[in-house]
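Example 3.
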Amino acid sequence: MFTPDADGDTTPVGGPDDDLIQLLTPDGERVHHESYSARVDHLDTEALQSLYRDMVMVRRFDTEATSLQRHGELGLWPPCLGQEAAQVGSGRALGVRDYVFPSYRELGVAWTRGVDLRKTLHLFRGEDHGGWDPAEHNFHLYTLVIGAHTLHATGYAMGIQRDGDVGTGNPDRDRAAVAYFGDGATAQGDVNEALTFAAVNDAPVVFFCQNNQWAISEPAQQQSRVPLFHRGRGFGVPSVRVDGNDVLASHAVMLEALERARSGGGPTFIEAVTYRMGAHTTSDDPTKYRTRAEEEMWRRRDPIDRLHALLVREGESEQFFTELEAETEQFGAEIREYCRAIAAPGTERMFEHVYASENPQVSADRAWLAEYEEGFATEEASA
Amino acid sequence: MSTTVESSTERITLGKAINLGLRRAMERDPKVMLMGEDIGPLGGVFRVTDGLQKDFGSERVVDTPLAESGIVGTAIGLAVAGYRPVCEIQFDGFIFPAFNQITTQLAKMHYRSRGAVHVPVVIRVPYGGGIGAVEHHSESPEVLFAHTPGLRVITPATPADAFTMIQQAIASPDPVLFFEPKARYWDKAEVDVSATDSAIGGGDGLNTARVARPGTDVTVVAYGPAVATALRAAAAAEADGISLEVIDLRAVSPIDFPTIAASVRRTGRLVVVHEAPTFLGAGGEIAARITEECFYHLEAPVLRVGGFHTPYPVSKIEEEYLPNLDRVLHAVDTVLSH
């Protein structure tokens, strides 16, 4: 369980890590795995640099956003600190035509979909309920109701089936849907219903569960008496547990799951064992519910440090890291500037897009407010 | 697949009219699909989808797992993928497991995405009492959805409207809750089953109430199963020399206030009838709005006739719960006595 033992080490919910797929040790050493190594063996220094850059940029963005919230520039922020490998590794496995339904801290996945991360600030600054066009990146809006979107992903996958975009063997046509969610979500009815619908329909959907150990203040063992990936198996869905702080392993298992989905093999459940190093959102205080020893233990498993160690091991020059540091500084400045420039929308925004077609009730409310506000303008003019 | 019927009218039940409407919509648009429990070979517990799976296949008429949230949630995903799912919830009292998906997801996705994502999902719900059913099989939860911005809530009262309105609901770019008055499933009437695309009219056809019977003394507003009750009351009142104007609302969201107000300006009196509890119900909203708009035309307070603030009672006493002929006439007498 997650209370650290004398060595400060922990075991994930439901049992030991024996079945955890890992391709890169916390010390930055590549390890062989019979089934998965082949999927990442070809990644050369340049490819590893690219993954590293993704994770560093995402972390920088996340750190800036957390800081902007502390400065009062954002109403709330859900940090993804510590989950960069699970998100970037899996996200980089996605094809252009795959469609992602994220939860609300999927910053790393958004980055891999080409979403301008600054657009995620609009939601948390209170200027928009979304912030980006889902169709432009095949990256749906965030879903804040826990687990609700796993059904949307499953339904979307059923649409893919009906479009005939599965199992054709044509890589430009076959595609999949993916739902990202957390450990707490697996306790929700919707996630269980999604697994049922996905299984009985052989839907081309991947359930990517980031077990970051904590649902706000509740540890994973308060959500489940079995390892989370066993839940998928109970529905007849092939399920794997992967080291979510290992970008290579996260990438490899996602490649396999997407291949299964696109080829007509049906859904997969992935449990990525990771850790949310920050708060659930900037509203809670992790010191009230978890120990420093536990946080320290996970800090030693940091996903970015791990890839850093591999790059150094493979002789990466200091120049790469220095240049990247300069890039993140520039990025940070852009984020701050962008955030502060997001102004309140006009009041009329309230009435836009409530319905896709004319609705007399909305029109009446809009007209009433306009007339009411006009009254003040007239008063001021005559004063 | 059957061919389009050429003869213009047929005498059919309200249930059959919905079945034919679904068939037309499926013929018109290959993206229209049906989802629900027991809607395939069985044709639904009320047989509303009878024969459709046989003609359109199990990919378009889907027998789903027994999971209402799953039905609506996957329908949302299918809609995002470009389909037009029509979900059947087996009974009114079973819609609550799907309440979250309907109110927090379906109702808001267009708004949240500022119009980028369309979710034209229709949810069909047999509702209302009067058929002697057991608990959870006779409820009227329409206002819970009408209170949620982003949803349209409509209910036909006649076979002709049922045939047209289900097609309008499916053609609408907005999510629609389509409440079917189950006590009227077996009512028969002439229906023009050759209605064309232009008669369907998409979402814009969903805003307008219908004057079911013109009259001069009291306006009676009703919707769904209560329209027939109001019409019977009007026939009975006529024998006493009282002329009731009966308005069939058709839509509980949005409500066609202009049609009601125009009528009340002529009659000066209004009675609202529905099966759902009157407390915080559609009748209260109508009474408030009409009082605002027609204050100087009203000769009497607006009265409501509806369900009590109790769960739907056991079937042996449901006749006393439902707004029946006598209670409508009592309300009419009361507003006329002012």
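Residues 1-8 of chain A have pLDDT under 50 and may be disordered. The beta strands of chain A are 99-101, 177-182, 205-211, 214-215, 218-219, 239-243, 268-273.
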